[in-house]
Design a protein that fits this description.
By secondary structure, the chain is α+β, with helices and mostly antiparallel strands. The protein has 3 helices and 9 strands; from the N terminus they run H-E-E-E-E-E-E-E-H-E-E-H.
Length: 167
């Protein structure tokens, strides 16, 4: 469990780092920053900067769902302080590699960071998300109105190293 807490802190640190990055590009496509840290911390992150210096980050990370199952969790982090203020989880649908996947979504707090988490709620959905990351160079997802493309290099090893479902 210590390893998973350490991973949470690495994810938190990466979120803060990317939200603090200066705006350096003018076109939207060149403002996307990518961190592929599947092998280091067990996640991949995309971040975008806007002309008003606000930033949004999207992550996919290996985590445990509330029942202790090893899952891939999508995360959304915004530099605005008031975007994540609801309690509990709600049902949503996210498109992952052209398939609609039922997910739970809710605010999650980690140290001083708040982010919105999305995780598959059905076994078929969990399998689709994991297999998408196993079988492609990149995985597409539509979250918060953004069409995203996450790299998968290193995912298989990170997935195997995580430790499996909690007993």
């Amino acid at each position: 469990m210590l390893i998973k807490k350490d991973t949470d802190m690495k994810i938190f640190a990466a979120c803060l780092l990317l939200l603090a990055m200066p705006l350096t590009a003018q076109s939207e496509s060149s403002r996307w920053h990518e961190i592929n840290d599947w092998l280091g911390a067990g996640f991949v992150q995309l971040s975008i900067s806007f002309s008003d210096n606000s930033r949004k980050s999207f992550q996919v990370g290996i985590a445990d769902d509330p029942a202790g199952k090893q899952i891939l969790e999508f995360r959304y982090l915004d530099s605005r302080s008031n975007y994540c203020n609801s309690d509990g989880y709600r049902d949503v649908v996210i498109t992952v590699n052209e398939k609609r996947v039922k997910m739970k979504s809710g605010c999650k707090r980690l140290a001083m960071a708040h982010f919105i988490t999305y995780f598959p709620t059905t076994e078929k959905g969990r399998e689709h998300v994991v297999e998408s990351f196993r079988n492609a160079d990149r995985v597409s997802a539509r979250i918060q109105g953004y069409d995203l493309s996450f790299p998968t290099n290193g995912f298989e090893e990170a997935w195997g190293n995580y430790g499996g479902d909690a007993i």
